Each structure stands twice: as C-alpha cells, then as structure tokens.
Amino acid sequence: MNQQVGLFSNKALQDMIIPLFLEQLLVMLVGLADTLVVSYAGEAAVSGVSLVNQFNTIFIYLFTALASGGAVVISQYIGRKAMDAAGESASQLLLFSVIFSALVSALVLIGNEGMLRLMFGKVESDVMQACITYLRISAYSYPALAVYNAGAALFRSVGKTSVTMYLSVASNIINVIGNLVGVFALRAGVAGVAWPSLIARTFSAVVITVLCFRKKNHVFYARKWIFQWNGALMRHILRIAIPNGLENGVFQLVKVALSSIVALFGTYQIAANGVAQSIWSLAALAGVAMGPVFITVIGQCMGNRDIQAAEIYFKKLAKITLLLSSAWNLLIFLLTPFFMRFYALEPDTKQLVIQLVLIHNLFNAIAYPFSGALSNGLRAAGDVKFTMYVSVISTIVVRLLLSWLLGVVLQMGVIGIAIAMVNDWGIRAIIFFWRQKSGKWKTFQVI
C-alpha cells in the first residue's frame, strides 16, 4: 500500500470523525435550547425567529457551499504537498467570503422589510415586527458566519476538526448564556435572542481567523495573499462552490414548497410533521458529519494524483458512514417513544410521529450515506456538475412532484411526503454509487 493510503490511519480518521459528530450534535442541542428560551419571549417572538430562520438558512447554505469549494481546493493542494498554494487558496477563500457576505448583508439590511413583507405579508403586525428586528440583527452576523466557515474549511482540510469542535462549544455557551440574559434579565424579546447569536458568531470568526494566521499550522493565512486577488485560484474555488450553492438553493426552495403542501393536511398532521422533523435532524447527524471527512480525505488523495488511495478510502469511508449512520439512526428511533413523553400531543399524533421517524431513520441509515456523504467525495474529486444535475433533478422530480402525488392526489398526507423524501435519497444513492463504481470521477481535475 502506498504512502498516501497510510497517511490516514484509523486513528487519524477517528480524530476527524468524532469531533465533527460531537460538533453537529452540540449545534443541534443548542438549537433546541434556543427554541425553548425563545418561547418565553412570547408567541410573536417564536414565530418571528422561526420565519426568519427559514430565510437565514438560504444564506447559511450559500456560505457553506463557498467554504466547501475552498475545502476541496485546499485539500487537493495539501495532497500535492503544495502548502503555499493551499495557504494562498485559504486566504483567497477568506477574501471572497468577506466581500460576498458583506454584499449580501448590505442588500438584506437595505431591503429587509420589503423582502419579509413579500414572503410573509399575511402574518400579524407584531410577528412582522419581530421578523424585521431579528433579520436586521441577523444580517450583521453574515460576514462573521462566512469568515468562520472559511476558517473552518482550512482546519477541516488539514484534519484538525477538534479545533472547530472546541470553538463551537465556546461559541454556543456564549450564545445560550446571552439568550438567558437577553430574554430573562433584560426582557429584550426577540432582540435578546438575536444579539447573543451575533456576538457568538463574531467571537467564532475572530478566534478562528487568528488561529488561521499561525504559521505552525503549515497551511495558514498570509496578508500578502489576502489582499491580492488571484483569479485562477478563485475560479478553482467557485467551480466547486457555484454548483454546490445552486444545488442547496434549489433544495431550500423545495423545502419551502413542501411546507406549503404540508399546510394542506390539517393540524394534527402538521404538528406530527413538525415534531418528526426535529427528530429527523437529530437522526441525520451521522451522515452529515461524515461529509467533510470525505472532502478532506478524497481531496488530498486526488491532489496527490493517488487514484488507488482514493478508491480505497471511498470504500472505507462508505462502510464507516453506513455503520455509524445505522447505529445512530437505530438509537434515535428507540429513543423516540421517550421523546414523545415531553410533547403535549394526542395519542394519534404521537403514533404518526413514530411512523414518520421509522420511515426516515430506516432510509437515512442505508441510503443517505451514499446520497449525501459519498456525493461529497465525488465533489472532492472534481465531479461537481454531475452531482449537481442529479441532485437538482431528483429533488424537483422525485421529492417535490412525488410528494404532491402521494400526499395530495393519493391523500397519504405527511406519510406520502416522507415516502417521497426517502425515494429521493434512494434514487440518488443508486446513481452516486454507480458513478463512484464507474470510475468516471477519476478523470476530473480541480487544480
């Protein structure tokens, strides 16, 4: 076995996977805590935060897509042992992240009220006021969020995922304490929730940027690279980021459309779907956490032009993802009846939640490792357009149209929505598995 294969020992993979998983779990638990604290600020605040978060998610996915593009390029240069080029790529990612997020932030601050009234014009006036307040403060945090993602891309590319985990712990502690002070001590309502998020994100952005300037990292930021535009490197990054951003954008739009379909099914099904989605998010953590691992490992192998190593790690990481995802989804399903004790729901609603979680977790365990995590490996190899086309077409044709057919036409309700979702995963899993086996990804180059 060649040297590159030996570079990622089981210990090295473990040191990447565990912090990523714990970081995702922490973010999820803090999100639940935030929701609980916000509920004490009143129904208008809860509704405003919920609606704006749907809007914010679009930009979060865009910044994440940009960082993923940077991570692929950085990983490939690291694999080639071109550390200066990797550092310059990371610096250019920071530069573009600042410019792009500042423009987005300015546009949202200028047009926020108009955007909100266009999307949520029918909501009550106090809810709309909460939306406006929360979005204005959130928009100030967009640059910090983009800068943090750029720094996280650097550390994940070199395999130091524990850095982002520890920083996430500190940031989320700041956020939770700030929420408690803002809501209970200052009684600032929705602003009492928004400002702590801004402070926590700014803290994360500053700390990770400072860490990225440390030369002992081998891959680091340098001022000479940050303040000098490199068109060639930027094109490499955007060639990955733009298709990924388009894919995520379509996915978010389809989610909004599916929310409108679910709204047709009546109160008890809407409630069951909402609770099930919160459990689904928890169950999906294993597959989501493995995505950056595929990018780092496959990206470094391809950067070194070590196709044999990439093939070995595709198989190895797929097996790890499948085992981890299966165990985690089973655990969450077994805990679901316990979770139901904390919800004031009718027995029929609780039963429907359990059915929805069963459908989700079964396919999230066996299909999502290939439809989600493995697709990141294909992107890391440079096979970005194919993954984008498959994901976009499957999301629209299978998830959206099949949801309408099963849920509305055949009157299966939210069960039909869930079946459409897992069919989307299944079809993508088959196609991406075939694509990986075909070896077509070996012919692409990112750098």
Automatic annotation (TrEMBL):
GO terms for cellular component: plasma membrane
InterPro entries (alphabetical): MATE_fam, MATE_MdtK, MdtK-like
Pfam families referenced in this protein's UniProt entry, alphabetically: MatE (PF01554)
GO biological processes: monoatomic ion transport
Top-level taxon in the UniProt lineage: Bacteria
Entry keyword set: Antiport, Cell membrane, Ion transport, Membrane, Transmembrane, Transmembrane helix, Transport
Membrane association type: Multi-pass membrane protein
Compartment(s) of residence: Cell membrane
TM stretches of this protein: 20-38, 58-78, 90-112, 132-151, 163-186, 192-213, 253-272, 278-299, 320-340, 352-374, 386-406, 412-434
GO MF: antiporter activity; xenobiotic transmembrane transporter activity
Family (UniProt): Belongs to the multi antimicrobial extrusion (MATE) (TC 2.A.66.1) family.
Role: Multidrug efflux pump.
Entry protein name: Probable multidrug resistance protein NorM
Organism taxonomic ancestry: Bacteria, Bacillati, Bacillota, Clostridia, Eubacteriales
